[in-house]
Amino acid sequence: MSNTTQCSFSSINDVITQANQGLLDIATTAAVCQNICQLAWGVGNPDLSGVGTNISYIIQGILTFIFGPLICLTYTLRARLGITKKGEKILQDLHASFLDIAAQSSIPVSVGAIVRFTQHAPFYELSFLRPLTIMQFLSVLSTVWPTAIFEENPSVGRIVSIIIYVSLQFGLLVGFIASLSASGASWRIISALTNACKGYTSTGFEHVPEANLHSSHLPVNAFYILGFIFTGIVGLAIVSIIFATVVIAVKKKTARGLGLLCLAFSVGTMVELSEMEHTRKLMQNVTGNKFQDNQWGIGQIVASFSWAPFCVLIAYCEYQSLAVRLSTC
After folding, report:
1. Apex CA 99: angle with CA 303 and CA 118, to 5°?
2. DSSP 167-178
């Protein structure tokens, strides 16, 4: 137990590793080392859950609902709504643009989650990353299927790009979730650390909840992660090709069914988004004025305006659609 009075841990992973090896006692270490609770839960990460990036996630969730089930409903009721062929083309272009933007933002987020995992992120960040990666995947899923009803004859390139979007996103999600696996012994250490920090009032962590994780973040071989990613990509690619073939073959009869499917994925997106908000608020209550995620900076401003060009495009297309309807009156 010679290490119990040494508090220069490089990360919470170092604490768990030493505890697994029997080199320190969690309760004793938490009582002696005043930095261990903050090391375990952190004080936020603006790059991950900052105020600007959080605004971006919320906007993405709202747009997912619009360009998932709502756009399918609009297509189903296009005759009643008086939408012309030109109006349908505007909706198609908007949907295609959103899908591309959503995929191009979701994939880097999932890659970043895996990179941050390898850097031994604290519990709060991993708790936030789990629903975030699931939300990004569900967002893409929710907006993929309207392509089958809006594009009369989608090109091979378009179909392939969509399959790549979904398969890569799923593979990254599987790789990240699988990376969170840990032994029962590690879980017992995490529980002991959680209990020790609940009573550690001097650092403001007396209200720390149970770590909202499936597992801890002990070192995982890179090939282990890449193996899960590759398996997920290949598996979903095969399923996507089969399902896309069926949907395209009967697309005229599936608009309503696809709308319900998109609605289910959109609800899942909102559920994960609400979990992210809950985790963020909980961490803010725990850390108080040490919470870093509410600090504005250039990165937060850029993130909060990331969807601005697309929102301007929506407004412009709506103006075009209104002009067309007025000209036919």
Report:
1. 55
2. HHHHHHHHHHHH
Q: How far apart, in Å, are the Cα atoms of 60 and each of 98, 188, 271, 276?
A: 10, 37, 13, 13
Side chain identity, residue 313: L
- Nearest CA-CA partner of 84 in 322, 316, 256: 322
Asked if the structure places residue 33 within a domain, the reply is: no
Prediction pTM value:
0.78
In this predicted model, which residue has the larger pLDDT, 249 or 279?
A: 279
Helices 85-118 and 123-144 cross at an angle (nearest 10°) of 160
- Asked if residue 136 is part of any domain, the answer here is yes
pLDDT digits (tens, 9 = 90+) for 185-219: 667 777 777 777 765 444 444 445 555 544 444 44
Q: Does a structural domain hold residue 66?
A: yes
- Segments forming the whole domain that contains residue 282: 47-183+218-288+298-327
Question: How many domains, the chain?
Answer: 1
> Is 212 among the domain residues?
no
Amino acid at 88: E
Strands (E), 128-244: none
On the 0-12 / 13-18 / 19+ scale of CB atoms within 10 A, 230 is middle
